[in-house]
Amino acid sequence: MSTLARNATKGLKDESFPVASLVLSPEHREAVLTFYAFVRSADDIADAPDLTTAEKLTQLEAIEQALVTGDPKVPEAYGLFRIERTYNTGIAQAREMLRAFRQDAIKSRYDDWADLLDSCRFSANPAGRFLLQLHGEAATAQAPADALCTALQILNHLQDCRQDHERLGRIYIPVQWMLLTGGETAFFTPAQAATRRMVLDAMLDRVDELIDRARVLPERLQNRRLRAQSVATIALAERLSRILRRIDPAIERAQIGKLDAARAFLAGLSGLVHRPKGSDSRVTAAAVRRSGSSFRLGMQSLSHERRRAIHAVYAFCRAVDDVADGAAPASEKLHALREWRREIDRLHRAPETPIGRELSRASSLFQLPLDECHALLDGMETDSANRVRLATDDDLQLYGRRVAGSVGTLSVHIFGVPTARAFALDLGRTLQLVNILRDVDEDAACDRVYIPLSRLARLGLDDAPAPLLVADPRFARVCEILAGEARAGFAAADESLERLDRAALKPAILMMENYRCVLDRLTARGWNARQGRLHLTAGDKLHLLTRAMRPT
Fold first, then answer.
1. Which residues does 60 contact at the CB level (< 8 Å), separation at least 6?
2. If you write DSSP's letter for every residue of 111-152 in order, what string do you get?
3. Is residue 179 within 8 Å of 112, Cβ to Cβ?
4. What is the pTM of this model?
5. Residue pLDDT, tens place only, 452-466
6. Which label site among 33, 114, 155, 317 has the fewest CB atoms less than 10 Å from its CB?
7. Are 516 and 427 in contact (CB under 8 A)?
8. Which of the 8 DSSP states describes residue 472?
9. Residue 85: in which H helix or E strand, if any?
10. Which DSSP category does 419 fall into?
């Protein structure tokens, strides 16, 4: 036995995701098991509670030297050395992972999301690259494989956050994110459960985006057995993400059940039969389904290609809005929005996300003015601030132009009525006014006030913490005035529609009627009697469904 051997802390059955499933060919499975044995032994050294940091680093250096030289006295290293000689892969990836284990021995905190992702480049992604090279896969599979491995690693970090904290003194939740709860000590206290939940959900939003990036992997794999394992792994990642949204991993450990594993295995078998297609369009369509937006009714009236394009636009809007509204530090939100700007700039070259690829397709088919995507991102940057106030009516006008006018302009291009741009901009402003009125209390909880301070000042209201502002009786008067402007906006839209192609603009008309109904309900409820966010009644929804089913 090797002098470096230790009692394993985990085995194959303890892993949440398939390492070397039986669906792989026997020779490839043996190679994967050998790679896993080496990595597991190194990971156990890094996690050993009875070793000092210096002892961990010494042993990791020794096991790396055994791997490079093929020392038969260290079976785990010698086995992988032989795999390298047979398949010309394994050592480089294992050495990258050793770099991560050295980091674990000396580093126990990660400052921000980029810091966490950088650790995954070495702790997770090399394992996926080993699998790809072992099976002779093309370079096009590397990016989605990296996304999947990073997602799996972060899911494992969240799954084990309590055990890692208590047993190893190690926390992978970024320090800047924990500060939103008051710091790392506060993060793990029961009193911060609600804020912790928001932080965890914001992290899971980013994990789900990585999973979406990985969905194209089965399409790009040639080996049908590896394809089957990738399908099963993606299914399990989805499942664990959903479980982590339901339970609190700071209190209990999320577990993948046997039924979950069986379902994932059955899903994986489909990869043996055929190569999946159309994953990008399924991602954007799923974003629309999850939203429950009434805009879905209007989308259904579009032709296939127009509906696919509007799904892409909606998914983009949903993604960047989730960034702005998520419980992440403002600096992290701005960084994520900058990444989306880079993606928009890549649309006509090589977009890297499923939403980006679908937007690129839509842009080619319908000549989308992509500057509008940047305008929307400008608006999301406003929303990303820790505190939001609009000083004047001009600021409100600019904000509405960015967050709503941009979407309207993109939409009328897809509807085939680019000449309706003025209608789209005016209607967008009206809909945004309704949004502001509907979400007053919800926004105030985030210290956001979108009604201009200049309007409040005219009624003697000075700036103050948002909950105090919106609770003042004079605030209701400002809401009433804004509601009148929204009603005038709907009347102007009705007049404009008399000169436009109503059939082509049916999705916009249905959205307009939905928001008009919301405004009517808000007005009937009264601006002094807010009781949380208003929701349409079943009768309202039936009316909209009836409108959607009949010709415009």
1. 42, 45, 46, 98, 101, 102, 105
2. -SHHHHHHHHHHHTHHHHHHHHHHTT--GGGHHHHHHHHHHH
3. no
4. 0.91
5. 999 999 999 999 999
6. 114
7. no
8. S
9. helix 75-87
10. G
